[in-house]
Design brief:
Blueprint (H helix, E strand, L loop, with lengths): L18 H25 L3 E8 L5 H9 L7 E5 L5 H4 L5 H4 L8 E5 L8 H4 L5 H21 L2 E9 L2 H13 L10 H6 L2 H14 L5 E5 L3 H17 L12
Parallel strand pairs: 1-3, 1-4, 2-3, 4-5
Helix pairs in contact: 1-10, 2-10
């Protein structure tokens, strides 16, 4: 992808778009996704890995709930990644990711992912520059393995919000009883590292682009969910899947 400077990319929906119209379109797309997931599961030839990255409060949980929440849970799994456990530290950094890659017919969602190992670990200087640069190479090889040798479609979404929107959402977690469980005082400390995180993301976009990144303006949830649902729908449609016929006995 061309060099992505996040400060120059809008976090908002184009002003000409009508919110109600987009939400109606999203509802239709989600109906299509239900059928496409059924096809994916039945045909059993392909799989889909969805990577969701973004700053704290960018809306990853909302995407999982509102775009994928109504699909058949037999074929969808969600995995969240935080600091590695002691067991995970004893393996290579991709070990915990590779073991949750989707099998044929399945959709797996990563709420944060292998990119944390070139983001938070870089920003907090838990690894040196030589290490995270080597990790770029390993990530590219891993994603090529999935896409070129295992019929796995990989979609990498960066949920792009403004610092103002992030602060508003973090404040809501202290006031809205439905969101208080998400509150973490450390999120405000991490927000102070905004520029460092953006630089780390921009370098990841540039160096890990064998599978292209999709930067999603995410200040408005209705637009974010529409773009992601449409991209997933279009990706599955391009597979030209068919239901298997009767099995020969």
């Amino acid at each position: 992808m061309p060099e992505a400077k996040l400060s120059k990319i809008s976090t908002k929906a184009p002003g000409k778009l009508d919110k109600d119209h987009i939400k109606a379109d999203t509802a239709k797309i989600l109906e299509e996704l239900d059928e496409l997931q059924n096809l994916l599961f039945a045909e059993h030839k392909h799989s889909l890995l969805v990577v969701l990255q973004g700053m704290d409060a960018s809306g990853k949980d909302g995407v999982i709930r509102n775009v994928f929440g109504k699909l058949n849970p037999q074929g969808v799994q969600v995995y969240s990644f935080k600091a590695p456990t002691e067991e995970e530290k004893s393996h290579d950094f991709l070990w915990r990711i590779h073991k949750v890659a989707p099998g044929k017919g399945h959709i797996h969602l990563l709420n944060r992912s292998h990119y944390e190992d070139v983001l938070i670990q870089r920003v907090h200087k838990w690894v040196d520059k030589a290490t995270y640069k080597k990790r770029y190479e390993a990530i590219n090889a891993f994603e090529r393995l999935l896409t070129k040798h295992n019929d796995t479609q990989v979609l990498k979404f960066y949920l792009h919000i403004s610092p103002e929107e992030q602060q508003e959402r973090l404040a809501e977690r202290m006031q809205d009883p439905r969101k208080m469980w998400k509150y973490n005082a450390n999120d405000f400390e991490e927000a102070k590292l905004w520029d460092e995180y953006h630089k780390a993301y921009e370098d990841a976009f540039e160096n890990c682009n064998d599978v292209p990144w999709i930067i999603v303006p995410s200040d408005q949830n209705w637009y974010k969910e529409y773009l992601i649902a449409r991209t997933v729908r279009d990706t599955l449609v391009k597979l030209k899947m068919k239901y298997p016929g009767l099995k020969k006995t």
